[in-house]
Amino acid sequence: MDIIWGPYIGSDWEAIEAPYCSSVLSENVYKLPDKVMETAVKPLNGTTLSFYLDGIDSSQKFYIYLHVAEIETLVEGEIRQFTVLVNDETISNAIQPRYMAADTYFTGSSLSGSELNFSLSPTIQSTLPPIMNALEIYKIKEFLQSPTEYRDVDAMKKIKSIYEVTKSSSQGDPCLPRKYSWDGLICSDNGYDPPSITSLDLSSSNLVGKIERSFSNFTSLEHLDLSYNSLDGEVPEFLSEMPSLKTLELIHRLDGNPDLCKTSSSKTTTTTKKKNSVAIPVIASIDAIVVLLVALFAVYLWFRKRRRQGKPAGVKPHDPEDN
After folding, report:
1. Residue 76, SS3 per DSSP
2. How far apart are CA 157 and CA 247, in angstroms?
3. Cα-flanking dihedrals φ and ψ of residue 61, to 5°?
4. Which residue, of 98, 107, 246, 247, is most buried by count of CB atoms within 10 Å of its CB?
5. Taking the chain, what is the end-to-end CA distance rounded to the nearest angstrom?
6. What integer pLDDT is reported at residue 270 of this predicted model?
7. What is residue 33's DSSP assignment?
8. What radius of gyration do the chain's Cα atoms show?
9. Which of these, 204, 161, 214, 162, lies nearest to 183 by C-alpha position?
């Protein structure tokens, strides 16, 4: 997620800047841009830094993230220490910014109200007014749509981890929002009920190793494409026991399963386990097809050559009148 930072300064604020540039300011867990943390504001007159956010729906909920770093050089005996209040509620213990090092403080629970009033006030021990380098306010957005079926989400995360799938779209909910579902997925549309994965295409995804049992967690999966990978070993029986699976595509990598693919000329194999049936189309390799075509062409040339030489290709029936 990209964040665009913009400057803001109140009429009773004073802007200050760090004496030098430092990449250390962006080395905390939130990775704020050092250019953002190299600037700050403090009260122009007085000791309290105050501001507010109004015109909001009182039913909305917010989370606050405050980023601070000491960017002024303090002389001996000077102390900058302050508390942060939102709507008169303290959201942190006393904050004492570290010199040229970023720290982040945030609300432990959501805040709400028709107006949010912020107040950064110095403690009794402080000799300097508070400062603020950056502030983020996040609004909670409620979704009527339920998230993807948890078993499917768990299965996708395990498959992503085991096979080290690194597709750029593989973030967040696999099916939602529908416009940004993960690549290779087709999900069911169940209205407001949780969607489930009905088709999974992992072809040419550099999958290596055996077919993991995590695939069996997809209870609504109808189509699974694992072709053009480096999978080995036998095709596991649990695939035939998946309640909704109709087709499984495996190309080139079935050497370890003699029951499903003994020769390269095999095109379609169907296995039946108990009451479930899984049709497994196995497409012959390109090399095998080429060999077959060459063989047919050679036979054709042989018959043609025999005819030109006047020698029959078969045995002529016996005619009694010839005796």
Report:
1. coil
2. 22
3. -120, 145
4. 107
5. 96
6. 35
7. -
8. 35
9. 204
- Partnered with residue 106 across adjacent β-strands are 65
DSSP 231-247: E-SPPPGGGGG-SS--E
Alpha-carbon distance 163 to 202, whole Å? Answer: 11
pLDDT at 138 over 80: yes
Q: How far apart are CA 45 and CA 12, in angstroms?
A: 7
The dihedral through the CA atoms of 292, 294, 299, 300 has a sign that is positive
Backbone angles phi, psi at 307, to 5 degrees: -65, -40
With 0.70 as the threshold, say if the pTM is over it: no
Are the C-beta atoms of residues 271 and 260 closer than 8 Å to each other? yes
Are β-strands 268-273 and 276-281 bridged in parallel, bridged antiparallel, or unpaired?
antiparallel
How far apart (Å, rounded) are the C-alpha atoms in residues 165 and 86? 43
DSSP 3-state assignment of 308? helix
Q: Kindly report whether the peptide bond that precedes residue 177 is cis, defined as omega within 30 degrees of 0.
A: yes
- 54-105 tens-digit pLDDT: 888 888 899 999 999 999 999 999 999 999 998 888 888 899 999 999 999 9
**3 CB contacts (<8 Å, ≥6 apart)?**
136
